[in-house]
User: Fold Amino acid permease from Aureibaculum flavum.
Amino acid sequence: MPDIKKFGTFAGVFTPSLLTILGVILYMRLGWVIGNAGLFGAIIIILIAHVISISTGLSISSVATDKKIGAGGIYYVLSRSMGIPIGGAIGIALYVGTAFSIALYLVGFAESFNGYFNFGMGINDLRITGTIALVSLTALALISTSVALKSQFFILAAIAVSLVSIFLGTHEFTPNSVKLLPSEGAASLEIVFAIFFPAVTGFTAGIAMSGDLENPKSSIPNGTLWAIGVGLVVYISVAIFMAYTVDSEILKSDYNILMKIAIFAPAVVAGIWGATLSSALGGILGGPRMLQAMSVDRVTPRIFAKGRGENREPVNALLLVFLIAEAGILIGELDVIARVVSMFYLSAYAFINITFFLESWANPDFQPSFKVKRWIGLLGFIACFLVMFKLDMVAMMGALAVIGGLYFWLQRKEVKIKSTDIWKSVWENVVNKGLKRIDNKQNVNSSWNPNVILFSRESDHQSYLLELSKAVSGRTGIVTNFDLIIDNKNKIPLKRSEQTVRDGIYKDLGIFARRIKIENLYSGITNIAMTFGFSGVEPNTIMMGWPKGLEDSVEYETMTENLLHLDYNLLYLDFDIQKKFGNYKTVDLWWRETDSKNAEMMLNIARFILSSPKWDHTSIRVLFINNTDIDPIIIHNKIAKLVDDLRVIVEIKIIENVKEQIPFFDIIKDYSANTNLTIIGIPNYKIEQQAAYIVSANQLFETIGSALLVKAANNFNVLDLDFINTKS
Assistant:
């Protein structure tokens, strides 16, 4: 099998990039830019444009020396760093921009060609000439990529000769004074910049050939940056020369002035035609390879992934480029096409720069051989969007809407490739820095951000416990569910991949889930409570089902004592299988004098529950049993103030129990029999009294619906529920 032909830095990157940079804008519009913006304005426009091209060139060069660069150029880099949805969206936009840029160059060629031979200069005349040129270049690309690239050496020589001819040319149009700034009646700088900017987008022509390079990691940075640097020198040199050689009014009106001032006009004609045709050829060669790479990844239809011959020449993709470019030629307006191309390229360059910045900032495995300061990528990203906003905010929003639509389409399409993107590293970096900031802050009692360890197993009603745990944790709380598998015989633990559960209801609710083998349920819970979590986001709450039938269990008593000693908030749910949570409309909070800490936790739970979709129309009552001879108005007012401080809207009900002295749980049976969720504080009792408390609680739960028992940790504020000293 013969070797596949590969290209080096000069032929594969530098030459196609430079020829695209020194294209139609240099010969056909740079004079117009100087005439409208003045010399200083033109230089500023050139420099701002090159801030974007240089920063983007540096960014793409750095990324290219870190990763294996495959076919597809910029698309390949973005898709492997930012993921297929972003890479594909930008790749499609850049592909369309590349195809339209072909039309830009060929319409410029048609203007020069028709003007030189005195053919018609009407829009239809330009369309005909541009179409003929497009067909010819497409045929050349179909014949041989190698021949097409070799032809660029002759074009490069022609451009060099044309520039020499211009600098040695006549001075018969020399102005009396050089216009340094825009004159009255000139086009706005925004329009001038939009027309000029495609001139600096040519460096992507070489990157697009990445799949055909011998050593892309070396060729891309060297060829790209040299092409950008040479292009910058040429543009500033020609701008200064033209400003001092030709009157600004002539520059604004005569697009062919370079032919008139050159010492040998045919050399300029050859340069113009060579530059425009080679720039178009660069797009014809690079655009299809980008589409082919996207089709290989199934971003675009697979029909465009097919290639011909040993080099897999992208014939089908080339034909689509031909059709899009022809549509641009039919537009026929060079300035209109230039503005469309500018917006597509600016969007793509913004994402190239932010890709490099994120790789450099977040990816610990990012080790490029071409070192660049990360702030350069951020500068390029900001510059792109500032320029887009200044040029045309409506067009910017339109371009971003198109890219956004492509992004969400590809996300829903769920295209998968065997590659990881940068976002995992980005989030890990954000989380890491956030944890350090959280850990450095002193723990305060002003708010409770739940980090819940939940113990539940698969059952018919597990989903309700999971839903309530998520509701109790609020919008920012963390819930981790542990499914404990008791295995006394096989002591080999589950593999790490088997321990993590990411599907089903856990994914829907945003709950982390783990499955772990243990020998003993109670010691397993205690061990998890002692070891799970890490600095910054330590768990602060344990939630599990109410322990029916365990009132005589010594192991359960020991576990409870350990959890209390560890100072966890404890939540026990007695779930009514028949009533469930009813219609999610009523919640009762039962308070007594001993609930000084539990009361605040109950109010926080109520506040979080109200923010949950299923409980958002819930009515909450605070019920307080008055066992002493205290004026109920005094009690009501004090509770109202406590509740108001915690910003929870509730109904307050004071139950007089001075004479009857009815037991606490019996009163709850009367008032909360039909409540959807009853929340009760667990009082401080000696551990040996636990069995008696469980028995009495079990009797209560037989007559009311679902109930949540809470025991607050010491970090909660003490609410003053001692009303004896309040008595007037």
